[in-house]
Amino acid sequence: MSWYRPADVGFSARQTLAEWGHGARMLLHLFTLFGASFKRFRLVRDQVFFLGNHSLAIISVSGLFVGFVLGLQGYYSLQRYASSEAVGLLVALSLVRELGPVITALLFAGRAGTSLTAEIGLMKAGEQLSAMEMMAVDPVQRILAPRFWGGVIAMPLLAAVFSAVGILGGYVVAVLLIGIDSGAFWSQMQGGVDVWSDVGNGVIKSVVFGIAVTFIALLQGYEAQATPEGVSRATTRTVVVSSLSVLGLDFVLTVMMFSI
Amino acid sequence: MQKAGLRPAFAFMKPIPNDALVEIRNLTFGYGERIILDDVSLRIPRGKVTALMGASGGGKTTVLRLIGGQWKAQKGQVLLQGPTGDDSAQDVGALQGRDLHLARRRMGMLFQFGALFTDLSVFENVAFPLREHTDLSEDLIRDVVLLKLNAVGLRGARDLMPSEISGGMARRVALARAIALDPELVMYDEPFSGLDPISLGTAARLIRQLNDVMGLTSIVVSHDLDETFQIADQVVVLANGKIAAQGTPDEVRHSTDPLVHQFVSGQSDGPVRFHYPAPPVDQDFCGARP
Question: Residue A150's closest CA among A53, A56, A44, A50?
Fold first, then answer.
């Protein structure tokens, strides 16, 4: 491919567009399989367990440390304006509106996304998807859709755990270590965090990120070349593409939510 | 039961002779410039074991994929005799969605390395098509699965995981899974490759026995001459995208066609060259080095 030859540029543009179109159709297909997936809820439930429960450790530990750091940094900034009691509010708002969904999605891409891509890619390499097709079973419906909906359910739950643990981390630093009044810490938080505009924003973000990360992971696995290098490349691409998508979508969503 | 004439796949119903389950008509398939199958016509007789042979990359597996409707040919038809056994036939290549699934439920396919689902036990692998396509009770599923496993001699291996069984056993489990729904047609993709002599003999006998006992029609893709010639009723040799020879094992063995002769006698040079195309020897070894 040379960028200065019109034929090559056209070819690669067409190829890219075709890939995007294929991806969009797949996403649409997965959405239409909502009913079919939930009719066999056992399959979705298993995936929520695999993707969610197995990510709990990394999510909780990360949440705790992010909460610690937020407590310290928040205190450092706020004490300059003699309003260090507001550190609880700062920690909660940062986590619920922004850091909870975003960091959870990035970790989810690394922990669950890669395992999804590798699993699907290896199933493809081992002809398991072909075998399923030949048994008149649609692999998208039987394999991809339960994983997709499992990921979409698990992601907001993990983001909630992340924020909750993070707030506890902030409490440990601000109240137990620095000695801010516990009542002020919680009451400022309670008064300042709105269920709909703050928590709601975070939930919407985490659902969108869940859709993006799970879908990208599944698509990369399904489209992977059925070779060891192909699967390894697809796994890498899952992390890169889904991390960038999460950060990009986060900006877009934040702008949209500001304008409301 | 499908109503003939209503579905688009039946639009060009063509009678095919009653003794053939599958008929391939003027099939051409290729990737881009590379032609894999060039105007191939072939009949797979009902109740018989047909062996598709030929060198690697000769399009044998492609034929199976085309019959299964996983790939679509550029030209030609793959006619599958209608389920009623009358003369109506469906073109598998033109089937979509539910029709294609219905056609595939009449087929079983054994992949080269079994393609067992690695996250399911041997029992669950065989139960998979039953759970997906039937409403049988758990007791009945258990009975059917154990019967099928018994047919391949692995009733005792039901609780093992695919990672705990040998390659030969994995293929037998895959065979039990392929026949779980009592298909009419079973396709074997290289069932003998990489097997030790005992497993190889077992696999060959099993293919023949199942074919006769269950009244199946079998297509075996293989390049293992002795075993295949022993079990096949009809042998088709594919070479360069065409059918080089077709007939009973004996007819093919004694074929005078140079290419078939080279294949059957396993000679390294003949119409199929030992050397990959290269510049002349003197140019590479005696000429001036760059």
Answer: A44
Pairing of the two strands B75-81 and B20-31:
antiparallel
Whether residue A142 and residue B116 make contact (CB cut-off 8 A), yes or no, is no
Domain ranges of chain A: 56-259
Hey, is B189 helix, strand or coil? strand
Q: What percent of chain A has pLDDT over 70?
A: 98
**In this complex, is the C-beta atom of A126 within 8 Å of any C-beta atom belonging to chain B?**
yes
Q: What is the largest CA-CA distance in chain B?
A: 78
B22, β-bridge pairs: B44, B80
CA distance, residue B72 to nearest chain A CA (Å): 14
Q: How confident is the model at residue A260 (pLDDT cuts 50, 70, 90)?
A: low
Which residues in chain A are contacts of B100 at CB distance < 8 A?
136
Q: What is the per-residue pLDDT across A98-156, written as a single tens digit (0 to 9) for each?
A: 999 999 999 999 999 999 999 999 999 988 999 998 888 999 999 999 999 999 999 99
What tens digit of pLDDT does each residue of B233-245 get? 999 988 878 888 8
- B290/B286 Cα distance (integer angstroms): 12
A128 vs B115: CB contact, 8 Å cut-off? yes
**The pLDDT value given to residue B85:** 57
Cβ–Cβ contact B116 with A under 8 A = yes
Residue B101: closest CA among chain A residues belongs to which residue?
Answer: A136
